[in-house]
Amino acid sequence: MPDAPISDSNTPLSPDEQADIIPNLATREELNEWERDNILRARQWALADRQLARLNPASEDYVRELHWRMFDQTWKWAGIYRKTEKNLGVPVHQIHEKLAQLLGNAAYWLDKKTYEVDECAVRFHHELVVIHAFPNGNGRHARLIADVVAVKDGHRFFSWGSKDVIAPGEAKEAYLRALRAADHGHFELLLRFARS
Ligand SMILES: Nc1ncnc2c1ncn2[C@@H]1O[C@H](COP(=O)(O)OP(=O)(O)OP(=O)(O)O)[C@@H](O)[C@H]1O
Ligand SMILES: [Mg+2]
Fold first, then answer.
1. What's the pLDDT at 163?
2. How far is the CA of 137 from the centre of ligand 2 (A)?
3. What is the CATH superfamily name and number for domain 19-158?
């Protein structure tokens, strides 16, 4: 009998991944479910009125705390900046400086209303994934920060294409195309995608 096709969900986790995982999990499917649960709790925390009223998403403490809350039960590096180079993101030694610049800009845009709130949120999101401060989870973290920015200002959270943009597929392709346009300073596609 031929082997069952290897799908992402039953792929065993690599030794490197295993070393950094807090719970005892064997497969990608278990990890995905565990992460989803962790992130859901962080999302409830972040979008609760109390946090929205008292916390400033355009601050380093917030950016790190949110990542930590999203992955604290899952990964040992939750809330800790990346220490190795990736094919995405700025060089490791620039993470602090680029993030500080972005947070200064984001705080200014929000305060001075340089752009509509949606555009502030989407620009903030885009720069966060460009910097890629964490070893993983940068996309989910940056999308949640954009949601926080929108909801804090009385808007609805983003739909991000209304489909799964984590798994490979059409929605993810559309999301990545919109990010590439944003790399060239064109935010219309990403703004539309985020509300589609
Ligand atoms: N060429 C690319 N391929 C994949 N991701 C990209 C690319 N360019 C930018 N990105 C951004 O980086 C994110 C992936 O980074 P990372 O794996 O750290 O985050 P994640 O939350 O684990 O990913 P995902 O959003 O896919 O669940 C994407 O969500 C997207 O925002
Ligand atoms: Mg990832």
1. 86
2. 5
3. Fido-like domain (1.10.3290.10)
